[in-house]
Write a structure and sequence with these properties.
alpha+beta; three-stranded antiparallel beta sheet; three-stranded mixed beta sheet; 4 helices; globular
Length: about 170
């Protein structure tokens, strides 16, 4: 389990909400897991596979278009839950149970770095939205305008800068 500024803020009671009926919140939203058992409906994973669990879970509102499209990071109601942050215990436990759709496979050779996946997803979602905006602009089609400024030198900022550099941005 990775520990970051979010966990520090939760421990200082700046935010963080335990699940209903619990007076505590298990931390841990950045994690690497090893599959030790699979349920009868499991199709993608087998015992021994390495996985990174995602953090955010969709809300239950039938009219929330982003959540119904598995884009819960864009939830329009704010009623999403987050493992180790908001209304759901995190991964800082000996074992956790998770649905397959919320797990991403990790190649064994990357075993030492998958806790960086969660902060990288924050940067990747931002870059995805930047591309959508760029496509509407006159230079979007020919690759001009690939200059980026990254503010912040935490994990999200550093990983975001690296992701932009790999895509050819002057960063």
């Amino acid at each position: 389990v990775g520990i970051c500024g979010t966990d520090r803020e939760i421990c200082s009671f700046a935010y963080g909400t335990p699940p209903d009926g619990s007076d505590y919140l298990v931390l841990g939203h950045e994690a690497l897991g090893e599959v030790v058992q699979v349920g009868p409906g499991a199709k993608q994973f087998k015992v021994g596979d390495l996985v990174v669990p995602s953090v955010r879970r969709p809300c239950d509102d039938a009219s929330c278009v982003p959540c119904r499209a598995d884009r819960q990071d864009f939830c329009s109601t704010g009623d999403f839950t987050e493992r180790g942050i908001k209304m759901t215990h995190g991964y800082m436990t000996e074992f956790f149970v998770e649905e397959e759709k919320f797990l991403t496979p990790v190649p064994p050779e990357l075993r030492d770095v998958p806790v960086l996946v969660e902060p990288l997803t924050v940067a990747e979602k931002a870059i995805d939205q930047v591309w959508k905006v760029q496509e509407r602009l006159p230079w979007g089609a020919n690759g001009e305008g690939k200059t980026a400024v990254v503010l912040g030198a935490g994990p999200v900022g550093i990983l975001g800068a690296m992701a932009l550099l790999v895509r050819g941005f002057r960063t």
